[in-house]
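Our working data are protein records whose layout never changes between entries. The record below serves as our worked example for the rest of this section:
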Amino acid sequence: MDGAQSGDNEEYGPFGRPLFNDPKAKALSRVGTIDVGSNSVRLVVFDGAARSPAYFYNEKIMAGLGADMRETGRLSVEGRARALSALKRFALLCKGMNVSPMTAVATAAVRDAEDGPEFCEEVARETGINLWVASGTEEARLSAQGVFLGWPEAQGLMCDIGGSSMELAEVGDGVVGKRVTSELGPLKLMGMKGGHKARKAVIDATITDLRDDMPRDYKTIYLVGGSWRALARLDMERRGYPLKVLHEYRMTSKSVLQTVKWIRGKSVDELRAITGNSEARMRLVPIAAQVLKSLIQRFKPEALATSSYGIREGLLYEQMPFELKRRDPLIEACRWDEAKNARIPGFGRQLHKFLAPIFGKVPHERARLIRAACLLHDVSWRAHPDYRAEVCFDNATRANLGGLDHAGRIFLGVALLHRYKNSRDGTRFDDLFGLLPPKDLKRAEILGKAMRFGAMFSVERPELMGELKWQPKKRVLTFELHPETKGLFGEVAQARLNSLAASLEADIVVK
């Protein structure tokens, strides 16, 4: 994907031509989406680097539209009133933020309710919002597109659980494949007669049918939906996992089954105290856990990946031109950040070229992390100098970035920390460093120190930066100065070169 999307032209090299200022991309700089679900009603306004969504505004109401569906076949009276009130507010907010375009989609509760069409008419009359009622398979497609927004190379099965339904969709090679829908939403399952035993029988039978419809082997299941995210947070807490970022959090089937068992011994109040989620969300989690246990037992995935992106992000992805969809969300977001916040926008590309000889040919995943680090190397310069290194680490590990797994976050964070600080000693991140293998920690340190040295030569013409040469077998690092810029190589630059060489366990030659 990388070579195709970068356009490897002479001017931009592996970075490709910037797209965020392209008119088609700028048209997506303030996009609003409203998701009217069975449990929640949410407004999200995206802004900035469209390929990696920045959340300009995000508000959710736990309306519970589908709370009475099993008993009455109609939308909850209280939920309907709360949803309408929220939509009135959202319409005014969108007007005030000059949001265009704005898309509103309703899912299972409105789709299945006897009074769903009446509710849509009322919403249009009272707010001016035209709700698009998505079918189950369309809901699956949009949620799967949300997965592609964060994981362009996703391969496996997307599983989206809402309040009143659960959808599955095959994802791979940038294409959404077969899609199926079911009524396995915890809000709908909650009201079943017969309690736990009857509910388990329905869940197991339904998932058996779903497995027959989706017979392929899926190594990874991408989990979309609030109940899955709450369950993933509980898995983090049970394991004592230190990085509290849900997107790209990966679990094994064994770990999830242990968490499901652990949840059964907790009350809703105890679960709320652990996660901070609302009571309306947490009372659904034990039922969602039942569904996930059955899903794992029948589909037998190697890994389950938590996605913070879903139907709303899928609606944004739907509006992207093809060229933008093919871009790397991490690199696009980093380029946007550099353009907005760096002291010398564009220098990241020069810095990358300068230090590339140290790394030579590396795997694709590490290559893109090196590029991302170079783009971000100076975007946090406004932070207080005493805390700049820690701010860089926090920004990288906790930023809302797509296309970046947890190991990648730590790698990027450590590299940017060393951009401003030689040592990791005395920081508050020791538990997070442990998520990265020692060899990768060392590689990130070398990258950070290379950027720290290269930043001393931020000249207008790249060729004046001088040239680094690395002979790994001989352990010799050579720095050839350019005659016009020899004066830049002072005491501080020498000290930074010494630190880089120490991390490489190299001798230094300066010419």
